[in-house]
Backbone:
């Protein structure tokens, strides 16, 4: 019986830690996005198990921006982070929460990992959830949200801190807002 196992190296790198591992999976999920403006992938993990994934895309069985060959919000020059009611797509965070509900899986005390890219240049952007998604995340009972950033850093938010902050200040005073790092 062979018991001398070699150390695991991938592309001359050491084995990734859990946060990097989960964000890499979210990055792969993001590749399924059907948005001209933003590619985002989200996974939800509870008890060290992936329980849901989501990417930006139109509701099931409807046409997305790729199929229609244009973005309504681009045509109207609407800045990132505004006028979501005009967008065809659901955000990756929303879709991950919805997919967990469809499977009957609880999200209580789970962690959400978010990864975002600009599809025009392939560069990472801040993957902070928008206000709509933050409200859903709070109500879903998630514990932490781990986000990739344009600086290739990781930003970890405790959901209870959002709640405390919004109890004292207005939601619009939130320091980390989606779209602040992007142009129209």
Residues:
């Amino acid at each position: 019986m062979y018991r001398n196992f070699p150390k695991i190296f991938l592309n001359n790198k050491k084995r990734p830690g859990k946060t990097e591992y989960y964000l890499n999976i979210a990055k792969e999920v993001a590749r399924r996005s059907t948005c001209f403006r933003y590619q985002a992938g989200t996974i939800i993990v509870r008890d060290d198990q992936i329980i849901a994934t989501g990417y930006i895309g139109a509701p099931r069985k409807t046409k997305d921006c790729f199929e229609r060959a244009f973005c309504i919000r681009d045509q109207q020059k609407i800045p990132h982070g505004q006028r979501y009611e005009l967008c065809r797509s659901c955000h990756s965070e929303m879709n991950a929460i919805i997919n967990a509900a469809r499977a009957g899986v609880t999200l209580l005390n789970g962690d959400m990992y978010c990864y975002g890219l600009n599809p025009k240049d392939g560069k990472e952007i801040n993957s902070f959830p928008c206000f709509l998604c933050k409200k859903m995340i709070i109500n879903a009972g998630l514990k932490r949200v781990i986000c990739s950033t344009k600086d290739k850093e990781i930003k970890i938010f405790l959901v209870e801190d959002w709640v405390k902050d919004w109890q004292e200040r207005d939601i619009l005073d939130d320091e980390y807002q989606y779209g602040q790092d992007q142009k129209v």
In short: The longest helix spans residues 18-30. The longest strand covers residues 39-46.
